[in-house]
Amino acid sequence: LPRLSTPRGIRDIDPSEFAIFERIRNAFVDTAELYGFSLMEPATIEFLSTLEAKSGPDIMKEVYAFTDKAGRDLALRFDLTVGLTRYVVSNRALKMPVKLASFADMWRYDEPQMGRYRWFYQWDIEIFGVKDVAAEAEVISFTKHFFNKLGLKVKLHISDRKLVEEYVRKNLGIQDDLLVLELIRALDKSSKKSKEEILVEYVKKGIPAAALESVIELGKRKGPLLDELDRLEKEGLWVTGLKELARLSRSMGIDDFLTLDLSIARGLDYYSGIVFEAILEDRKSIGSLAGGGRYDALLKAFGRGDLSAVGVAGGVERTAMALGTVPSTPLKKGVFVAYAQPSLRDRALALTEHLRTMGVCCETDLLGKGLGAQLEYASSRYGLSLILGERELNRGSVILKDLAAGQQEEIPLNQLEDKLKTLLA
Ligand code: AMP
After folding, report:
1. Confidence band, pLDDT 50/70/90 cuts, at residue 328
2. Dist. CA 275–CA 165, nearest whole Å
3. Tens digit of pLDDT for each residue in 39-86?
4. Residues near 275 by Cβ (< 8 Å), separated by ≥ 6?
5. Which of 102, 122, 123 to mutate to test the pocket of ligand 1 (most atoms within 8 A of CB)?
6. Of ligand 1's atoms, which has the minimum distance to the CA of residue 289?
7. 312 lines ligand 1 (CB under 6 A)
8. Is the pTM of this model over 0.85?
9. Mean pLDDT (the chain, rounded)
10. Is residue 175's pLDDT more than 70?
11. What is the pLDDT of residues 82-95, one digit of tens each?
């Protein structure tokens, strides 16, 4: 026998989880429509070199890379942003702004733990070609609307990499680009790892401990957006981008969704400006439900320094966890076709075939089970059942049973279509 288990970090999505995924997908597709985003899916496999552009060392360690039969270096996509960006950059005829939405799966050789898998789904939206914070505001508004629709209480923790960069260059006097980037990477880890762990990891890489400590301290700045920005401004820090966004979000009425959190830096190197993560208010332990920001650095790496882009991606598995198990699935809008004795199975199959061509959702028992067992199954899935019996069929009729109420009546077959259409309308 082959192994029947799945590889570590990769699992099946069973029907109950799939139902929650569908709910999330529907909420996403509806929101994408509401905001005027076009749905598409970027390629699942890319050239390794495409993924390497500006993604950063951490994610490259997690990429599922392989050589194909012709010796090409390829990799499975680890997010949707890179593929969507490659698509936009390589289609010069596209008119800006381009607003794309995608809901698909991806692979990362991550360390599996609660809410962290090696194969998982994300929903993702991107706006290309808008340099103004209007794009951030639209993406943030989308995120708020989407989580609201699902009934999840989420706050958006927001920061600006430019602010942090200014702090590192001006206040710490560090100008080396690589050093600045390492400090931002260290800051990104400050909410997940202890200060000691970060110091050990980064001092080994040659980053000065004092600078690391200052950056970790900066990461502790959190609180109501406008108040905190005022304070940071008084300390001489660059807050222009976030201030503009705060003003715009206030006029749009979405400012209550935002909270300043300078520990947010995002792990991927392609981010260049405002960055944010959506965090569940009452269950922070699930981790971030979504993350995004402005990523001009990626466009530059793809040769389109003239373009700018903002996007957000959310984890579907984590959102499903936040939603918890959905209360028992509602009864299907349709009818079960039961039969009183095994000899009537073929008649039942013929009737289901007919009903389906009429657009009525239905199924019958394929195993020739007893009527009791058929009706038990029917009651768990449907509100209505037909029962085929020899006597009624000879009279040209069938029994229609309301499974919840337990009542039944005999219906002539030539009236069945109308009757079902009225009941199921
Ligand atoms: P990222 O693409 O890393 O910015 O992640 C965006 C969102 O995807 C996160 O906020 C998580 O909700 C989700 N996510 C990231 N990595 C994983 C993973 N390994 N397993 C499940 N969800 C993930």
Report:
1. low
2. 13
3. 999 999 999 999 988 777 778 889 999 999 999 999 999 999 999 999
4. 158, 159, 160, 161, 264, 265, 266, 291, 292, 293, 294
5. 122
6. 12
7. no
8. yes
9. 94
10. yes
11. 999 999 999 999 99
60 CA from centroid of ligand 1 (Å): 15
Q: What angle in degrees, to the nearest 10, is found between the helix axes of 15-34 and 134-149?
A: 140
- Nearest C-alpha to atom 2 of ligand 1 is from which residue? 79
In this prediction, residue 331 carries a pLDDT of: 76
Spacing, Cα 59 to ligand 1 middle (Å): 11
* Atom 22 in ligand 1: residue holding the nearest Cα: 315
Q: In what order do the strands lie in the sheet with 119-128?
A: 38-39, 98-107, 119-128, 309-315, 288-294, 274-280, 154-160, 258-261, 222-224
Residue-wise pLDDT tens digits, 216-259: 999 999 999 999 999 999 998 989 999 999 999 999 999 999 99
Backbone angles phi, psi at 85, to 5 degrees: -65, -45
Distance (angstroms) between ligand 1 centre and the Cα of 78 equals: 10
Indicate which atom in ligand 1 lies nearest the CA of residue 117. Answer: 20
What is the H or E stretch that residue 81 is in? helix 81-89
Is the CB of 291 within 6 Å of ligand 1? Answer: yes
Q: Which of 266, 317, 318, 321 to mutate to test the pocket of ligand 1 (most atoms within 8 A of CB)?
A: 318
Neighbouring residues of 30: CB distance < 8 A, sequence distance ≥ 6: 149
Instruction: Read off the pLDDT band of 327 (50, 70, 90).
Output: low
* DSSP code, position 50: H
Atom of ligand 1 at shortest range from CA of 112: 19
Peptide bond into 342 cis (omega under 30): no
138 CB near ligand 1 (under 6 Å): no
Residue 58: what pLDDT?
A: 78
Amino acid at site 137: A
At residue 329, the pLDDT reads: 67
Structure tokens belonging to residue 175: 């100008």
Q: Is the CB of 79 under 6 A from ligand 1?
A: yes
Query: Scanning the structure block, which residue is given the tokens 């013929």?
Result: 350
